[in-house]
Design brief:
The protein has 117 residues and is mainly alpha-helical. It folds into 2 domains: 61 residues, 434 Repressor (Amino-terminal Domain); 32 residues. The protein is 62% helix and 0% strand. It contains 7 helices and no strands.
Length: 117
Amino acid sequence: MTISDRIFQLLKQKNMSQKVFSQKTGISQSTISEWKSKRTNPTSEKIMIICEVLDVTPQWLLSGIENTGHRGNNADWYVIDKNTEMGFLIRSYHDMEEQQRERLMGYMEALMAFKSK
């Protein structure tokens, strides 16, 4: 199943028309129709807004696999919205100098060890 197949499957499950989906995502109706008629997929920059509107994870949209409960393998990566608290943490860490990163990691390890007690 392709990404666009999963999108149309969800639209059907949610009883959401292509027009409403277009309005909520800001993606033109002609582009959405093209995904269906030509069996193409959305561009990468549209994935996050699609996931937000359809209330799915990027992992599920891209692969059809959702890691739930204790089944399956944990992903080796995360997809994080840069406008969230976690996104702020990642950006801040990225902007730090190496010495600051090492200090932060030491602090985090100490917090996690304290949590385990």
